[in-house]
From TrEMBL, chains A, B, C, D:
It holds the Pfam family Trns_repr_metal. InterPro entries: Metal_Tscrpt_repr (IPR003735), Metal_Tscrpt_repr_sf (IPR038390). Gene3D superfamilies: Metal-sensitive repressor, helix protomer. It comes from the Bacteria. It comes from Vogesella oryzagri. This is Metal/formaldehyde-sensitive transcriptional repressor. Belongs to the FrmR/RcnR family. CDD domains: RcnR-FrmR-like_DUF156.
């Protein structure tokens, strides 16, 4: 079972919070809300998405790149896949 | 009318897209999806939130900090408010 | 006198610190230093550069975009120039 | 030999470029340079530091976390060390 399937409760909690924040932001925009408040809501969503990303990335590194029973070839593939992901995050 | 109220259509489109991405991510997590695909979905949401942020920030700077008919005191208040927002975004 | 000229002492202090950090990093690399220590030195330089950036950006917004005696056309030009700078920083 | 010692030429080239950029920025500040040009120089240094960081991080992941001949305990230690480093970079 992938680490996502085996550990999705805390991740689902995080994603549902982000959904709720997006819904609240949608309402604020519909109501023509104050733009400083809107900018703060966006910063909060951004922080929540970064938190989710760090959690999934940490699980991925522990469960895949750090797995014990990998052949050298499998390990190298996991490492290169991680580096591709990190490049998109560390821009 | 605040620039949010007067220009919320493109902003609402962006927020609804983020909501849709969060819903798709929720489904992927429920299905125990592949974690590299999940990490790529999160990177896409992150990019969409940054895009929304840049759009609202640009509108805010043009409409508030750059407004013509402000007293020096009003202008200074707008500038300090902008600097507070930028500090949370430029960490 | 530009705000850079009138206020360059604190900025020069920051830049000289960054130069010193880069020299220390150069020495660590020549000595074949421990890579975790090298990664932490790089993170410290990154933090120092961000601090310098925030300082100059805040001065720029206060002194240029927030200046009192600007025509509407001059103000608009300052605003658009600021937005161009922010795009390169908020990627 | 650590991957830093064995591969420091390209890293030294990057660090010396950053030193040169810092020296040029120091001169621009001393001359009371144009602040938009100064902001662009800082953005360039920031990009160079990020490039150096990505290079050392990739080497570190390949050579340490992805090394073949590690015991499970050693591998777990390398993984946790990497996660600590990533937390400071992915803020």
């Amino acid at each position: 079972m992938s680490h996502i399937a085996g550990n999705n409760k805390p991740l689902l909690t995080r994603v549902r919070r982000i959904k709720g924040q997006a819904e609240a932001l949608e309402k604020a925009l519909q109501d023509g809300g104050d733009c400083v408040a809107v900018l703060q809501q966006i910063a909060a969503i951004r922080g929540a998405v970064n938190g989710l990303m760090n959690q999934v990335l940490a699980d991925h590194i522990r469960e895949h790149v750090g797995a014990d029973a990998l052949t050298p070839a499998q390990r190298q593939q996991e490492v290169e896949q991680l580096l591709t992901i990190l490049q998109s995050y560390l821009k």
